[in-house]
Amino acid sequence: xxxxxxxxxxxxxxxxxxxxxxxxxxxxxxxxLAVLADELGIDLPVGDLTSRLGPPLDHMLTPHLAAEAVAxxxxxxxxxxxxxxxxxVPAFPGAxxxxxxxxxxxxxxLLVTGKFTPNARRHVDHLALDVDLVAGxxxxxxxxxxxxxxxxxxxxxxxxxxxxxxxxxxxxxxxxLTGGCTRDELLDAGTHVVLDSLEDFPAWLDDHLLDLRLAAxxxxxRDLGSVVVAFSGGADSALxxxxxxxxxxxxxxxxxxxxxxxxxAVERDPGRAFVESLGVxxxxxxxHEMEREGYRANSGERCYFCKAELIETLRPLADEHGxxxxxxxxxxxxxxxxxxxxxxAAAERGAVxxxxxxxxxxxxxxxxxxxxxxxxxxxxxxACLSSRVAYGIEVTPHRLARVERxxxxxxxxxxxxxxxxxxxxxxxxxxxxxxxxxxxxLRGPLSEGARGEDAVVAAVVSAxxxxxxxxxxxxxxxxxxxxxxxx
Length: 487
Fold this sequence. Notes:
The protein has 487 residues and is of the alpha/beta class. Helices cover 47% and strands 10% of the residues. The protein is elongated.
């Protein structure tokens, strides 16, 4: 019995400092200090005080005021702040994009700042900063409590004291050079990463999470010990197979591709060549999903019966080869995509999902594949031929062969026009075919009235359809599911 690995980024939470990290506070802070100094009748060195923003206001004012005057001055500064510091203060370039990058990874964002909380909220509201929590009036090591309590794994700041808080919380410290601290000062303080600005943060976060997830994938595969990879030839199962070879070696990994009428013949040779390049054996058992009534009936549960057939076919082969687990290329995006009966069927039959377990998304799969030099890194999605048949229309070998001929004919017609569609689907709607092409083609060479459209339609009709037409909405993965959603 193998143990489940920890999520490499469980509920990703990233904390951000505010002043000089997300926002350029200098214009507003300077204006407020100037008004305060004028009211108090003192000369404050505004330039010096705003050159390294970050420390609490009492630290800044104490050298310039009598001890008993500091607290009243702070109270008055906070009153003046709303009128003089909100409108002039912009977000730094990359601030909104950095917050959005966390969202893209389904994460939460924290604002953990030494600023007076109501004023911090005013900046958030004015600049529409997408944060889930505003924690103000915390400084240095004090920030660690918030970061720990909220489960943060990264804290982004500009000051050595931000580094101090991150390290005390045990999270990754990311520093930007938009504040007053130098690179050497931040590194000496122990920060893990120094970026020129937040404009560099989204790419760093992508790479950071990919590194974590690939490490988790390797650990998961080592824990499994040996796997038969259900290899479709697509980017997901290709990465899984390559990762399994890296983690386990060629003697504990087997690739298996179910051959049936639903697998396009054009996919078979490239798939075999890829497996051979990794030095692992390829099993090509014949699967018989067409013999399952639920599959032929082609309801919304069709993929359930297909995946059930595949796993039930591969499990005995795994036993025969002394392999512990059957693994599929299900990724983290698949798990939240809603309608996925095939995933349910595989899980019920004990298949494991290492990519999902490691938190790898579809984008992660492509980026990791490119990093490793896999030829599948930019391969278009290639769903089975049955996915082209509208729900409720019986799936038969004849229909699947007709779809395959029609797609080949459409590609040939485009090639004659000097064109290519990265994503192309011919959907069987009964007697009629719907042709889905890249939207760029539809806006240009195949726009309404263009002669090329007729050539593509004629090619599809010649493959055996009574009539055909190009869908003006272009290619949409899983477009036939739209009809199910409308029911």
